[in-house]
Amino acid sequence: MGENREYLTQSASDGSINISEDVVVAIASEAIGEIEGVGAMMTTMTEQLTEQFMGKKPARGIRMDIQDGEITLDVYLTVKYGFAIPETAAKVQDAVMSAVETMTGFSVRAVNVHVGGISFN
Questions:
Q1: CA neighbours closer than 13 Å in the CB half-sphere of residue 103
Q2: Are 19 and 104 in contact (CB under 8 A)?
Q3: Mean pLDDT, all residues of the chain
Q4: CB 49: neighbour CB atoms within 10 A?
Q5: What would the pLDDT profile of 13-46 be if each residue is shown by its tens digit?
Q6: Rounded Cα gap, residues 52 and 44, in angstroms
Q7: From the CA atom positions of the chain, what is the Rg in Å?
Q8: What b/e readout covers 59-96, taking b as 16+ CB neighbours within 10 angstroms?
Q9: Which of 2-11, 24-33, 35-44, 108-117 has the lowest mean pLDDT?
């Protein structure tokens, strides 16, 4: 199994399967959207700089890293007022890990949830 910066590549006997990192981020984003208590995704400083200087609009609030064929996702979000942060974060971790592994076949090493605020809506 090899990977590069833009695609996850899995070798098969009759060729290879290439999955864009954007697809993995979209899968994670959809899984997060299903979790009750998540307020909104947050923009990281890196995302702001990427958008400003490179004109590329990165996925909001999700950063992905690949090492040794395993995916690590960092998720930046707010939690709605009244919801327990640890429980909501654990639900996000479970949902993202399950969705990404099921849909891509790649192993997820970790889903790190960074809660940066409370939403009051």
A1: 17
A2: yes
A3: 86
A4: 11
A5: 899 989 999 999 999 999 999 999 999 988 755 5
A6: 12
A7: 15
A8: bbbbbbebeeeebebebbbbbeeebeeeebbebbbebb
A9: 2-11
> Measured between alpha carbons, how far is 42 from 75 in angstroms, rounded to an integer?
8
Which residue type, as a one-letter code, is found at position 50?
Answer: T
What is the DSSP code string of 83-109? S-HHHHHHHHHHHHHHHHHHHH-PEEE
Q: What angle do CA 72, 76, 81 make, to 5 degrees?
A: 135
Question: What is the per-residue pLDDT across 63-82, written as a single tens digit (0 to 9) for each?
Answer: 999 888 899 999 999 999 99
> How far apart, in whole angstroms, are the C-alpha atoms of residue 21 and residue 63?
10
